[in-house]
Amino acid sequence: EAGVVQSPRYKIIEKKQPVAFWCNPISGHNTLYWYRQNLGQGPELLIRYENEEAVDDSQLPKDRFSAERLKGVDSTLKIQPAELGDSAVYLCASTDGGGQATDTQYFGPGTRLTVL
Amino acid sequence: AQSVTQLGSHVSVSEGALVLLRCNYSSSVPPYLFWYVQYPNQGLQLLLKYTSAATLVKGINGFEAEFKKSETSFHLTKPSAHMSDAAEYFCAGNNNNDMRFGAGTRLTVKP
């Protein structure tokens, strides 16, 4: 079974430029999460999807961040414009338990973003 | 809001020695608790989780953790460290779908 796929794995951009990250969850997983992991810290939730609906985007900085999961499968996270403080690893995770608190989240390898 | 604290950002043990990684949560309602491991350039992988059943939870690769409500702790242990255990370990708590991770503990295993 293929795991969570993310691309690109690495991205270097200059500040004020746009950037997008792509995630393909494990087949059949209806719940999808985007996290941001700053250096030396644990992941922090940005947004959670149940199928195509964003059910928790309270931690997403909506002035510059946006996300979509149009067909309830793969998802894209966008930053426009990027700031120096956005440098981090962006992780995608998915579960098949319907978004229960006991669910095991399966993580992709992440996209490491460097903003210069 | 709940939080998860991992005591010790770096832990170093000798091969064959006991591994103890500490995790405490702060929440009036005990959350569901998880330990994840992250190897370099890889995603987080679940080691074990506590979901209100047995307080002593056994996971993969010989790891186990015990939920102690009186101490608000969920420490991770392994009797004998192996070189392949060197990685970053994250404790996490989930209360009402509010998943919070600790800052992580980097485990180094010396030969």
User: Main sheet of chain A, how many strands, which sense, barrel?
Assistant: 7 strands, mixed
> Strand content of the residues of chain A, in percent?
over 45%
Count of alpha/pi helices of chain B: 0
Spatial gap, N to C terminus of chain B = 41 Å
- In helices, the fraction of residues of chain B equals under 10%
Structure explained in plain terms:
The complex is a heterodimer of chains A (116) and B (111). Chain A has strands at residues 5-7, 10-13, 19-24, 31-37, 44-50, 53-56, 65-68, 75-79, 88-95, 106-107, 111-115. The mean pLDDT of chain A is 94. The radius of gyration of chain A is 13 Å and the shape is globular. In chain A, the strands form 2 sheets. In chain A, strands 2, 4, 5, 6, 9, 10 and 11 form a 7-stranded mixed β-sheet that branches. A 4-stranded antiparallel β-sheet of chain A has the order 1-3-8-7, with no helix packed on it. Chain A is built from no helices and 11 strands. In chain A, β7 (65-68) and β8 (75-79) form a beta hairpin. Chain B has 111 residues and is mostly beta strands. Chain B is built from no helices and 11 strands. In chain B, a hairpin with a 4-residue loop joins β7 (64-68) and β8 (73-78). The interface between A and B is medium-sized, with 24 and 27 residues.
